[in-house]
Amino acid sequence: FLPHLIASLEQVDQTYIMVKPDGVQRGVVGDIISRFEKKGFKLTGLKLYQCSKDLAEEHYKDLKLKSFFPKLIDYITSGPVVCMAWEGCFGVVASARKLIGATDPLQAGPDTIRGDLAVPTGRNIVHGSDSPENGKREIALWFKEGELCEWTPVLTPWLRE
Ligand code: IDP
Ligand code: MG
């Protein structure tokens, strides 16, 4: 039983969650953080940060050819964002996307962050990685070495199988 428990406790993924500048301005940072805490994710990195155009463009490089790309970069660099690294068992990345809701807040379900708090797609207040690979990539992009904390929440056995 114990070796099995330890092995499954080790299966972790990370997701990069970011409160966009509109979320910071609107004072919903606490609400957003609280939803991930209550879900049982483990916070490993957190900072308020004014990002450069270069960093925003690198983060959204897959969208470079979209017509809204220049506006997206203006939006993301328009004020400080809150960068967060969250860790959880396998499924944490998809689970975070569920809490966030669809890209277009009109399509996002009730009780999701975007469904509850946002209206237009271009002001959808929060970012979440779309795959475990991108979770790793984005955390490495937004956090420097030494900014992430490794710690053991006492509730882990109650939150992971
Ligand atoms: P996601 O944030 O739900 O993963 P993506 O398709 O990766 O959605 O797009 C990244 C961000 O670009 C969105 O969160 C939104 O801020 C912006 N965006 C996406 N599509 C549109 C659009 O059609 N108009 C304006 N902004 C958009
Ligand atoms: Mg995306």
Q: What's the overall average pLDDT, rounded? A: 94
Order of helices and strands: HEHHEHHEHHEHH
Number of domains: 1
Largest sheet: 4 strands, antiparallel
CATH architecture name: 2-Layer Sandwich
Q: What ranges have pLDDT less than 50 throughout 5 or more consecutive residues?
A: none
Strand order of the largest sheet: 2-3-1-4
Could you please say which CATH topology applies here?
Alpha-Beta Plaits
- Residues in β-strands, percent: 15-25%
CATH superfamily: Nucleoside diphosphate kinase-like domain
Written description of the protein model:
With 161 residues, the protein is an alpha+beta fold. 42% of the residues lie in helices and 17% in strands. The protein contains 9 helices and 4 strands, in the order αβααβααβααβαα. It has a single domain, classed as Nucleoside diphosphate kinase-like domain (Alpha-Beta Plaits). Bound molecules: inosine-5'-diphosphate (IDP) and magnesium ion. Inosine-5'-diphosphate (IDP) binds next to loops. Belongs to the NDK family. One of its GO terms (biological process) is GTP biosynthetic process.
Topology:
Blueprint: H1 2-9, E1 12-19, H2 21-25, H3 29-39, E2 42-49, H4 53-59, H5 69-76, E3 81-89, H6 92-100, H7 113-117, E4 126-128, H8 132-142, H9 156-159
Antiparallel strand pairs: 1-3, 1-4, 2-3
Bound molecules: inosine-5'-diphosphate and magnesium ion.
Inosine-5'-diphosphate binds at residues 63, 68, 72, 103, 121-122, 124, 127, 130.
